[in-house]
């Protein structure tokens, strides 16, 4: 087992009783035979973080999903990455006592991190390529989701894909990945973000508040869309995503649960996707929902992650603008509140640990 000196305890942001969090001393997670231990440098924030605090997070567990740092210890069966490598990844924060990103050290299986190529993205940028990036890859490329052609391969023809919420974290990565795979992309955003989503590869973008948005999407795409990702997945976005599909119907992948009366269309299939299923651990999602291990979901993301270093080296993926929130782990509750209040738009909040 390769290692550098690692302490027994670390500072970590721990979920408390009463739906709050606090920085505490916490045991450094033990490293299994196929795991790596990472000394975190930067961590990024997601809506799932505050939602775990407010709803289903388990007291005593480590909050946080997205991280970038250096490998300090590897399990005996790990050949890559190596101690000293700069890696980034995604873990299930708020569910386990030995897994969570908002901490000085993160443990995760070695095949669920990717090595950041030298002279490409920094730790802040690498940390943003977690929950939202992986979710977009699962939604687009998993064979039971949209099953699109996966980069570096290219789709034949000029098939249109609709991404609702192109400037959201999941949406901006979905736009880029679908574009990289050779699809034409139509999306929605606020007018202030039109130029931004076009710079990511969107061929057409419309204001989601425009009462004629569905007609404009259909006109722009020849009413040909059969596949969509709804990166917002609230009632109105589910309605628009369903109505934007061609007369033959199709499939909309959601990042939240389907809302029963969002659409009357019987020819549109809503399919929720949840990236935690890619991590290879069974978990509870609230008091009554148990997700078993999904080897298929894990295998899909492991294969995708093998391609990420080259995509980054090629400059094919743009990371979102970073809003560096000063104050380290102790400042995260303030950042969570800022996000709760809906103040985040087309940027990722990042902290230095």
Distance between the termini: 25 Å
Q: What series of H and E elements makes up the topology?
A: EEEHEEEEHHEHEHEHEHEEEEHEHE
Enumerate how many helices there are, as a single number: 9
Biggest sheet architecture = 7 strands, mixed
Number of DSSP-assigned strands: 17
GO molecular function, one term: oxidoreductase activity, acting on NAD(P)H
Domain Enoyl reductase (ER): 18-351
Pfam family, one: ADH_N
Protein name: GroES-like protein
Would you kindly provide a written description of the structure presented here, covering whatever features stand out?
By secondary structure, the chain is α/β, with parallel strands linked by helices. The chain has 2 domains: 9-129 and 319-352, Medium-chain alcohol dehydrogenases, catalytic domain (Quinone Oxidoreductase, Chain A, domain 1, Alpha-Beta Complex), CATH 3.90.180.10; 134-274, NAD(P)-binding Rossmann-like Domain (Rossmann fold). It has helices at residues 47-56, 123-127, 131-141, 169-180, 194-199, 213-221, 235-243, 295-313, 332-340, and strands at residues 9-16, 20-27, 35-44, 66-74, 86-90, 105-109, 113-115, 160-164, 184-189, 204-207, 227-230, 250-254, 268-272, 283-284, 290-291, 322-324, 348-352. Helix 1 crosses helix 9. The longest helix has 19 residues, at 295-313. 49% of the residues are buried. The model has no long low-confidence stretch (mean pLDDT 97).
């Amino acid at each position: 087992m390769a290692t550098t000196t690692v302490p027994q305890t670390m500072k970590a942001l721990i979920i408390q009783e009463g739906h709050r969090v606090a920085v505490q001393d916490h045991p450094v997670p033990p490293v299994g035979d196929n795991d790596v231990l990472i000394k975190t440098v930067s961590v990024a924030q997601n809506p799932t973080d505050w939602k775990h605090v407010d709803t289903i997070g388990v007291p005593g567990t480590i909050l946080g999903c997205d991280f970038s740092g250096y490998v300090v210890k590897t399990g005996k069966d790990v050949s890559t990455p190596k101690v000293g490598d700069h890696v980034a990844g995604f873990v299930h924060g708020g569910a386990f006592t030995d897994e969570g990103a908002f901490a000085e050290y993160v443990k995760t299986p070695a095949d669920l991190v990717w090595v950041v190529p030298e002279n490409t993205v920094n730790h802040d940028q690498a940390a943003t390529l977690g929950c939202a990036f992986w979710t977009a890859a699962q939604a687009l490329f998993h064979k039971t989701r949209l099953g699109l052609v996966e980069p570096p391969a290219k789709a034949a023809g000029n098939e249109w894909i609709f991404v609702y919420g192109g400037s959201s974290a999941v949406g901006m990565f979905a736009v880029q990945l679908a574009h990289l795979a050779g699809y034409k992309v139509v999306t929605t955003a606020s007018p202030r973000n039109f130029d931004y989503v076009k710079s990511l590869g969107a061929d057409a973008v419309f204001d989601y508040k425009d009462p004629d948005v569905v007609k404009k999407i259909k006109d722009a795409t020849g009413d040909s869309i059969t596949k969509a990702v709804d990166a917002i997945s609230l009632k109105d976005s589910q309605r628009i995503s369903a109505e934007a599909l061609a007369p033959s119907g199709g499939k909309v992948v959601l990042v939240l649960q389907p809302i029963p009366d969002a659409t009357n269309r019987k020819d549109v299939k809503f399919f929720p996707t949840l990236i935690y299923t890619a991590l290879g651990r069974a978990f509870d999602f609230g008091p009554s929902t148990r997700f078993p291990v999904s080897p298929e979901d894990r295998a899909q993301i492991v294969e995708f992650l093998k391609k990420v270093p080259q995509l980054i080296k090629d400059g094919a993926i743009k990371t979102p603008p970073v809003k560096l929130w000063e104050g380290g782990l102790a400042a995260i509750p303030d950042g969570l509140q800022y996000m709760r209040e809906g103040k985040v738009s087309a940027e990722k909040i990042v902290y230095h640990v």
